[in-house]
Amino acid sequence: MPSTTPPPAPGAAVATAATGVVASPVATAVTTSPAGAAAAGAADAAVRRVLAAYFDGLHHGDTAVLAGVFHPEAVYATASEGTLLRLTMPEYFPVVAAREPPAARREARRDLVVSVEFAGPVTALARVECSMGPRRYTDFLTLLLLDGRWQVIAKVFHFETRPAEGE
After folding, report:
1. Are 119 and 125 a contacting pair, CB within 8 Å?
2. How big is the CA angle at 150 (ends 148 and 155), to the nearest 5 degrees?
3. What is the pLDDT of residues 85-133, one digit of tens each?
4. Which of 12, 44, 57, 157 is in Cβ range 3.0-4.6 Å of 66 for a Cys bridge?
């Protein structure tokens, strides 16, 4: 049952619950039954809470928060630098712990939920964007409802490095 929250009025701005960042509206599918819409709305809200925790964990470099977001067997992958980089969670979390988090640098939060789509009652795909330092990331996060909670099972992403100010 593909579903997300009902779309806003055409041209309306949308603030994400996670960040308050204003984004352009995204077209979404709506279920046909009120019961289905309520269940879909609850699933959408639960996924967006996981995404908010994801952004918080990245911004603060908090691997404990990220461990609550990612399934222990999740995959982290990118090819932004021309070769495949694939990490497991035991490989990824030390990378996060070793870097200075954006919050410590007093970086403004620039994170956004672009879209959330459901392939069924236990499978979702979120497209999110965030920035850390000079890099702007677009993440595709695949989530599964396992053991009663939504968890990221795969993070596949692309990043671009912005030029330093004045360049």
Report:
1. yes
2. 150
3. 999 999 999 999 999 999 999 999 999 999 999 999 999 999 999 999 9
4. 57
> Phi first, then psi: what are they for 79, rounded to 5°?
-135, 25
If one counts every other C-beta atom within 10 angstroms of the C-beta of residue 152, the result is: 25
Q: Please choose, from the candidates 70, 39, 95, the residue with its C-alpha nearest in 3D space to the C-alpha of residue 153.
A: 70
DSSP per-residue string spanning 71-114: EEEEEEEE-TTSS-EEEEHHHHHHHHHHSPPTTTTTPPP-EEEE
128/104 Cα distance (integer angstroms): 22
List of residues 6+ apart from 139 with CB closer than 8 A: 126, 127, 128, 129, 130, 155, 156, 157
Q: Which of 130, 154, 159 is nearest to 73 (CA)?
A: 154
Which residues of the chain have a pLDDT value below 70? 1-35, 164-167
